[in-house]
Automatic annotation (TrEMBL):
InterPro entries: 6hp_glycosidase-like_sf, Glyco_hydro_47, Glycosyl_Hydrolase_47, Seven-hairpin_glycosidases
Cellular component aspect of the GO annotation: endoplasmic reticulum; extracellular exosome; Golgi membrane
Organism encoding this protein: Oncorhynchus mykiss
Reactions catalysed, as given in the entry: N(4)-(alpha-D-Man-(1->2)-alpha-D-Man-(1->2)-alpha-D-Man-(1->3)-[alpha-D-Man-(1->2)-alpha-D-Man-(1->3)-[alpha-D-Man-(1->2)-alpha-D-Man-(1->6)]-alpha-D-Man-(1->6)]-beta-D-Man-(1->4)-beta-D-GlcNAc-(1->4)-beta-D-GlcNAc)-L-asparaginyl-[protein] (N-glucan mannose isomer 9A1,2,3B1,2,3) + 4 H2O = N(4)-(alpha-D-Man-(1->3)-[alpha-D-Man-(1->3)-[alpha-D-Man-(1->6)]-alpha-D-Man-(1->6)]-beta-D-Man-(1->4)-beta-D-GlcNAc-(1->4)-beta-D-GlcNAc)-L-asparaginyl-[protein] (N-glucan mannose isomer 5A1,2) + 4 beta-D-mannose; N(4)-(alpha-D-Man-(1->2)-alpha-D-Man-(1->2)-alpha-D-Man-(1->3)-[alpha-D-Man-(1->3)-[alpha-D-Man-(1->2)-alpha-D-Man-(1->6)]-alpha-D-Man-(1->6)]-beta-D-Man-(1->4)-beta-D-GlcNAc-(1->4)-beta-D-GlcNAc)-L-asparaginyl-[protein] (N-glucan mannose isomer 8A1,2,3B1,3) + 3 H2O = N(4)-(alpha-D-Man-(1->3)-[alpha-D-Man-(1->3)-[alpha-D-Man-(1->6)]-alpha-D-Man-(1->6)]-beta-D-Man-(1->4)-beta-D-GlcNAc-(1->4)-beta-D-GlcNAc)-L-asparaginyl-[protein] (N-glucan mannose isomer 5A1,2) + 3 beta-D-mannose
Compartment list: Endomembrane system
Protein name: alpha-1,2-Mannosidase
EC numbers for this chain: 3.2.1.-
Pfam families: Glyco_hydro_47
Length: 569
């Protein structure tokens, strides 16, 4: 068939004459210019500008005034060290010279981060207890500083990066007002934190401890150096996502950018609690860098998890980054699963309650957990069992004790008729975890406790009897206190302080113990960095007024690093 040109009609598809086309194009370009220009006359909206403008065009960097000691001077901002230059080509869009406006961010907060009086409690006993916790912070002892750097840090985190205790404790020191120690730690980060280290680093651990620690140090202090460091580190994590599904592998070499799966994880799988515990930090990396790639990566993980079939609505612990299928049907609210669930509700809260998808996923997961894992012991204790392909293992890990806190922070946002139910569930789980402490000789809890063979919240195996300064039980006390103000949570927290002081304090700081049931303790000579970032911080918050890091403005990552709620304007 031949198309013939009709008389009076141009050859263009639209059938317009050349002059008509010119007038139409002129009109169109005028319209586009008008719409774009209107953006600048509309009420100021960072979000709109973020969508339409490139980072160089958006808000200028504001340098703090001289009397604002939280802000860095421009000369300091400009003195980026060698390893802070972006070197990788994996993320061409990344830019360390971002336009994030720190002053504007602070104005969006509903309350001052450190409260009116740094959360100073009004009653003298609580204040005294808070002072004790502050004194427990090993950094308080100036003479120990070199020891912490050279001895404790390399052993406390075998992740290819040094200085975990330093980075993990920056915000704790700052919140406690230990400014000399904070300044020492800051200086070390600025001059000695090597982000190019060649070694086996866990993507998850680097994210929760280093990315989380640097992000919260930046948000709390406004020090540009922390932002530059975290931008570089964030970019170095991206190669781990180069898999057929975009589900990251667990291990990464930050120097070379190669990544691989844990040798112990079956069939090269990735772990739910690891790839499911990136969301909060990655959203903030995108916020700060004005580069959507980080959010894209975590949204891709969520998309896959949403789509995949879930046995009884549960999320198993192992998933193949190649096929995108579950590798085993083991489900746990403790190790290997825990913080994935925590990050669902916290993603919702951190989005200023706008992330409906995270909310939906959280409440359906919780429903499945309640239907399949939550149990009542013969002695009336509520616990979360583990699920092995449909068979229950009546064991609860110390790690799973964070769930009291998780359930209580989500109590207000589920179905209104379930609010009281969630408050009760959170209180029951926290009570069970407290029982695991009070049933031991040291009044510290074991790594895992059981509810079978006559056991009720006690460890039956020798290998489960250790305590490594973990925070989860105290974390739940802190949230339960904030949301109920039942004084028993402060009492339980104080019991823990006394037990830590009695059994874990050693000359150079605090140490884990090998058997919580032994009157004469044996120390493992290890101070985990989460003792400084989580255990001491949660205790300090427990004995502070609620206006210190108010929950309306801050969400704690799984390593207790406060990240700000992204308030909608
Ligand atoms: C911390 O590193 C984090 O809380 C993580 O999610 C699991 N638990 C340890 C401390 O026990």
């Amino acid at each position: 068939m031949v198309f013939r040109k009709l008389p009076g009609v141009s050859a263009s598809g639209m059938g317009l004459r050349l002059s008509q086309k010119f007038v139409f194009l002129l009109f169109l370009s005028g319209l586009v210019t008008l719409c774009f220009g209107a953006l600048f006359f509309l009420p100021d909206s960072v979000r709109l500008k973020r969508i339409f403008l490139s980072k160089t065009e958006s808000q200028p960097v504001t340098v703090g005034s001289e009397n604002d000691d939280m802000m860095l001077s421009r000369s300091k901002t400009e003195s980026a060290s060698k390893d802070e230059k972006v070197t990788s080509s994996s993320n061409q869009g990344a830019n360390t010279d971002t336009s994030f406006d720190y002053n504007k961010f602070k104005k969006c907060l509903l309350k001052p981060p450190l409260g009116i009086e740094h959360g100073k409690p009004s009653d003298p006993q609580t204040l005294q207890r808070r002072e004790k916790v502050k004194e427990c912070d090993v950094w308080h002892c100036k003479s120990l500083y070199p020891l912490v750097l050279t001895v404790l840090c390399p052993v406390c985190f075998a992740g290819g990066l040094r200085g975990a205790s330093i980075v993990d404790s920056l915000d704790t020191l700052y919140i406690m007002g230990l400014m000399d120690e904070y300044n020492d730690a800051k200086e070390w980060v600025e001059t000695s934190l090597d982000l190019n280290s060649n070694g086996e680093a866990s993507l998850f651990e680097v994210n929760i401890r280093y990315v989380g620690g640097l992000l919260s140090a930046y948000y709390l202090t406004g020090e540009e150096m922390f932002k530059r460091k975290v931008m570089v580190l964030g970019e170095k994590l991206l190669p781990a996502f180069n898999t057929p599904t975009g589900i990251p592998r667990g291990v990464i070499n930050l120097g070379s950018g190669t990544s691989w799966s844990w040798g112990w994880a079956s069939a090269g799988s990735s772990i739910l609690a690891e790839f499911g515990t990136l969301h909060l930090e990655f959203v903030h990396l995108s916020e700060l860098s004005n580069n959507g790639i980080y959010t894209e990566k975590v949204m891709n993980i969520r998309k896959l998890l949403n789509k995949i079939e879930k046995p009884h609505g549960l999320y198993p612990n192992f998933l193949s980054p190649v096929s995108g299928n579950w590798v085993q049907h083991h489900v746990s609210i403790g190790g290997l699963g825990d913080s994935f669930y925590e990050y669902l509700i916290k993603s919702y809260l951190m989005s200023d309650k706008t992330d409906e998808e995270a909310k939906k996923m959280y409440y359906s997961a919780l429903e499945a957990i309640e239907a399949n894992l939550v149990q009542k012991s013969p002695g009336g204790l509520t616990y979360m069992a583990e699920w092995r392909g449909g068979i229950l293992d009546h064991k609860m890990g110390h790690l799973a004790c964070f769930s009291g806190g998780m359930v209580v922070i989500g109590a207000d946002d589920g179905a209104p008729e379930k609010r009281q139910h969630y408050l009760d569930l959170a209180a029951e789980i926290t009570h069970t975890c407290h029982e695991s402490y009070s049933r031991s000789a040291t009044k510290l809890g074991p790594e895992a406790f059981r509810f079978d063979g006559g056991a009720e919240a006690t460890a039956t195996r020798l290998s489960d009897r250790y305590y490594i300064l973990r925070p989860e039980v105290i974390e739940s006390y802190m949230y339960m206190w904030r949301l109920t103000h039942d004084p028993k949570y402060r009492e339980w927290g104080w019991e823990a302080v006394e037990a830590l002081e009695k059994h874990c304090r050693v000359e150079a700081g605090f140490s884990g113990i090998r058997d919580v049931y032994a009157q004469t303790v044996s120390h493992d000579n290890m101070q985990q960095s989460f003792f400084l970032s989580e255990t001491l911080k949660y205790l300090y918050l427990l004995f502070s007024d609620d206006d210190l890091l108010p929950l309306e403005d801050w969400v704690f990552n799984t390593e207790a690093h406060p990240l700000p709620v992204v308030h909608t304007e």
